[in-house]
Amino acid sequence: MTETTFDQPFPLGEPNDAFAQYFIGQSYLAPLTGGSTPVSNVTFEPGCRNNWHIHHGEDGAGDQILLCTAGSGWYQADGEEPVRMTPGTSVRVPAGTKHWHGASSDSWFSHLAFLTPGESVRNEWLEPVADEVYAQLPTTNGETA
Questions:
Q1: How many CA atoms lie within 13 A of 113 on its CB side?
Q2: What's the whole-model pTM score?
Q3: What is the pLDDT of residues 29-82, one digit of tens each?
Q4: Are 56 and 124 in contact (CB under 8 A)?
Q5: CB 105 within 8 A of CB 47
């Protein structure tokens, strides 16, 4: 981590190197539970976001649940307005929804993430969120980056 101290209730984890190619900026991953419904704490440095992506599944499987635990970030489904995520915000992303999530440009961000288990659950990574689109999002104090 950098000189900034980010206070959060779950471990920061290790640099998310296995998925770094799908992120702009540095993220960290801390697996919290295993089993049929693994839960991970994902932490994003300011300005870090993942690429657009789609979770796939069948018969109710593949929905993603995001629970913000610290900081300030964004979730956006394709064709919809961005949703600011602050501690206590929860989002259900139905399987098949193209979306992205990540930190505000001026804040660390952490969320718990899990997928509903079942048949044919997989992830499809797509293009990065364009800098021009991301720059239009308000910072934590309401200004644009």
A1: 19
A2: 0.91
A3: 999 999 989 999 999 999 999 999 999 999 889 999 999 999 999 999 999 999
A4: yes
A5: yes
